[in-house]
Each structure stands twice: as structure tokens, then as C-alpha cells.
Write a structure and sequence with these properties.
The chain is of the alpha+beta class and 131 residues long. It has helices spanning 2-21, 119-129, and strands at residues 26-30, 45-49, 61-66, 69-80, 84-89, 100-101, 106-114. It has two helices and seven strands. The longest helix has 20 residues, at 2-21.
């Protein structure tokens, strides 16, 4: 009986955490690919914080929108001509992404990760998409 109460309490606290994050500058995501191995693996959970775009540095791992998909990659270059533009790359990819990240695309900087907790979300997404 004690194990059931503990499980229910943990699930309740998890739901409260997810709902609380919805009303802050934090975002929780499940990693859906292996493009960031060894730092992040498919099925990991990350928490990203919407730090100021101008505070980002080469080496930071960020979340951004590309073609309406959330992407988690590492900053490999920062260009500052008329505006700040970032170039990113997955750690497990051989070449940098072929697009530039502008402030409007930026969701947040990865500040925390938990191994494997995101697998249920990944599996549901794969079922929905038919992957």
C-alpha cells in the first residue's frame, strides 16, 4: 500500500511540475532523436530556460523552432552583423545545420537533463506520426 501511495504522489508532483512550468520561462521537452549523443539521448527529458538571447555563448545547448519543430542543438557560431544570428549543430551530426537561428526562433537554453524519463512521450509521438 505504501508503494502505491508513493507512486500516486510522484505522479501528482510530476503533473504539478509540468503545469507550473507552463506559466514560467521554463520549458520541459523529451528528446526525440539521437542527434545530440553523448550529451543527450533519445528519450531524455530536458528543461530549458528562456535566458536573454544576447547572453548565449558558443557551446550552449539550446531549444529553437525550425519549420514548426522544436530542435535541441549546440551553438557552434554566433554572428553579430545587423542582428545576432546563431549557427547550431547536433553533437552526433557531421556538419552544422544549414539554417540560421534568430531571436524569434529561440525557445530556451538547456539547464537540466534527466536520462530516459521522456520515453513515454517519444513513443506516443512516434505512434501519432507513424515513425
Amino acid at each position: 500500500m505504501r508503494q502505491i501511495i508513493t507512486a500516486v504522489l510522484l505522479i501528482f508532483l510530476g503533473i504539478v511540475l509540468v503545469l507550473a512550468l507552463c506559466f514560467t520561462d521554463y520549458k520541459m521537452l523529451a528528446v526525440g532523436s539521437n542527434s545530440m549523443n553523448d550529451y543527450l539521448a533519445k528519450g531524455d527529458i530536458i528543461i530549458a530556460y528562456k535566458d536573454d538571447f544576447s547572453n548565449l555563448e558558443v557551446g550552449d545547448v539550446i531549444v529553437f523552432k525550425h519549420e514548426n519543430v522544436d530542435v535541441i542543438h549546440r551553438i557552434v557560431e554566433i554572428k553579430n552583423e545587423d542582428e545576432i544570428v546563431l549557427s547550431t549543430k547536433g553533437d552526433n551530426n557531421e556538419v552544422a545545420d544549414g539554417w540560421n537561428i534568430k531571436e524569434d526562433d529561440y525557445i530556451g537554453k538547456v539547464i537540466f537533463k534527466v536520462k530516459c524519463l521522456g520515453y513515454p512521450t517519444v513513443w506516443i509521438n512516434e505512434l501519432i506520426k507513424g515513425d
